[in-house]
Amino acid sequence: MNAELISVGSELLLGQIVNTNAAFLSQELALLGVNVFYQTTVGDNGKRLTAALELANSRSDLVIITGGLGPTKDDLTKETVASFVSRKLVHHEESLHNIESYFLKRNRPMSENNRKQALVIEGSHVLLNYHGMAPGMIVTNNDTKIVMLPGPPQEMKPMFTNEFVPQLAKMMGEQTSITSRVLRFFGIGESQLETDLLDLIEAQTNPTIAPLANEGEVTLRLTVKHADPTEQKRLLDETEDQVTKRVGQYLYGYGDTSLMEQLFLQLREKHCTIATAESFTGGKFSGMLTSFSGSSAIYRGGFVSYATDVKEKVLGVSNEVIRKYGVISPQCAIEMAKRAKEQCVSDIAISFTGVAGPSKQEGKEPGTIFIGVAGLTPEPLYYELNLAGNRKAVTDRAIKYGCFYLLKEMKRWNMKE
Amino acid sequence: MNAELISVGSELLLGQIVNTNAAFLSQELALLGVNVFYQTTVGDNGKRLTAALELANSRSDLVIITGGLGPTKDDLTKETVASFVSRKLVHHEESLHNIESYFLKRNRPMSENNRKQALVIEGSHVLLNYHGMAPGMIVTNNDTKIVMLPGPPQEMKPMFTNEFVPQLAKMMGEQTSITSRVLRFFGIGESQLETDLLDLIEAQTNPTIAPLANEGEVTLRLTVKHADPTEQKRLLDETEDQVTKRVGQYLYGYGDTSLMEQLFLQLREKHCTIATAESFTGGKFSGMLTSFSGSSAIYRGGFVSYATDVKEKVLGVSNEVIRKYGVISPQCAIEMAKRAKEQCVSDIAISFTGVAGPSKQEGKEPGTIFIGVAGLTPEPLYYELNLAGNRKAVTDRAIKYGCFYLLKEMKRWNMKE
């Protein structure tokens, strides 16, 4: 099945927003085995949308249009498609009800033009909008399916996944449903993961296994097709088992959960409080940890001990350690974590010291990092890293490693309990 | 002049990367008065690129193609365009030299396929690449100009701005050159800024004045057309004067400089050291300040005094202040800043305390923020904010306000010196 995307919106042609919808849809379709050969963007202009539609209809089995379904005069996707396939617009009761309750919930009066959003193309398959007002539609024209989805990503994405994908499975001639499970890995590169799983990835057809790398993390998406949900789960579990037997030590979570969120959730679940002592990370670790609401239950506080004398005089790292080993050392990392734990009275503490770059420090190369952890084991731990990349890359990766090490140790801790 | 964009790259069709080039180019072209009517994305496929090119050539005066100029077999933009306009590829000495020195600088051997990058279409206007290897090109075909730019944004953007825009001015039949100056504002909304400047914006044609809002900041882009650089500068200065007479108190910088970067630059210029005491911002302020290389010259260190007893026992806010006024108070903000300045031995210090949300704290609504500043004035200062939005929005905006207040006070400080 060959697909193409048409994005409608003058704000895209003016460059006021970046077209993330096209990337999302392309990625999802690729994983479902649908080839996307063209992405086109046109403004809120009936003539040019019709031209794009004619061309797309002539060469693709599936045309997905996003945007232009709203209540204003600019929005004319529905009208343009209706006229292209020579059909009328008719009221859709369920969508009107949805729109009315949307306004009721927000205690706002509904203006008349919002009724327009409940109009759908006659004979179309309506995709209900559970995250906004405008319904989506699937229209069949000759051998081509034309799909209309709303433009706002927070409406488009759930409609695509929950309402359209089941229909797509049917179109693809399968009396089955498609589900996927995303496994998240850290500390292993995409190519290594692929090498370790190559025979599985190649042999496996249901579920399929698709790796994807993004900002130092790798995900594996397992996609299963089966009519029976119990059987879907069994197949996914079985494949996950095969995967974790080989690379389980790098698995840290599922779905959209970031390393930091996973750490936050683990700390909260264990009622474990944490303190921080950050040098080159400058407070970024604690800044990310406190981005989750409810973080005050687990985060006590910390130090940004940037200057060497602040490490000594404020945080309390001993002068001897600094003189003898320097601040870029395992000893300093360990002392930083111990002092943060003591001063902030927490269960555990993590510290970061190292060279973010671009210059050397204490004769050490940029990317030389020490992470200290106090309170998780009888004796404090440290980890040494040598990371490549610029200042930002080094800092961001060090923070991820910090989360990963804590999660790994807490898992071990767990098993002992 | 009507333009359209063609983005080439299978990674775009697979959704592995988001097409930020299209947004950048559309925005820049709009500001230069060029209408973009279509954006098309095709894979690394000669046949489909030719189809897109034919269509674009038939309907647009200007076709800008990005991507597919690299050294690998996949890259075939140049070859496809050459064949479309029936011309040969020829070696471009200056580009070959550029590529060779690229490898020399990095001390890496140059593989043979990199030579291919020095091939250009015969008779084309070559755009030199100062940030990578592949040169860009402008080819005239009938009445249409076909422009090829490299795909990586860090190469494409400077080539577009510095090499292509001057050529575009010529194409637009103007014996002039186009330059713009971006003024950055904070603390004023886009609509207020527009209202305050409406008569100027409407009356002004050279330079033009275009406002744009982004993440709580507003920019004004002044775009001037004139053959003489001295006259360009005079016109820009004149318009900037008119603008700052009305809204100068909100102007904080120029070009791409963020509020935090401007603060960093100001502190460095004044040899002024800073310490931090952060509560709900959790270390995000210091994390951002230390993201600039060279920050160790101005940043001493700080506290993330998240829990109330950490504010008291570690940072040293007096128990009396906390008991009497609570931690969400001007008094606490001031004490936090004073203690951070003392403990970290800095010239100035800034503190953040408040309610990030979603829950109330000490009976105060989410968005209630106090920022304390010590060391800039004989007596410490505080600022009170009541911000709308979710946890992230409140935190991010509070940090921007912190930068803005410091910059404003430093300006005043400046004038006194």
Automatic annotation (TrEMBL), chains A, B:
Cited InterPro entries: CinA, CinA-like_C, CinA_C, CinA_KH, Competence-induced_CinA, MoaB/Mog-like_dom_sf, MoaB/Mog_dom
Domain of life, source organism: Bacteria
MoaB/Mog domain location: 4-171
Gene3D superfamilies, per the entry: 3.30.70.2860, CinA-like (3.90.950.20), MoaB/Mog-like domain (3.40.980.10)
Family of this protein: Belongs to the CinA family.
Recorded name of the encoding gene: cinA
SUPFAM superfamilies per the UniProt record, alphabetical: CinA-like, Molybdenum cofactor biosynthesis proteins
Native source species: Halalkalibacter alkaliphilus
Protein name: Putative competence-damage inducible protein
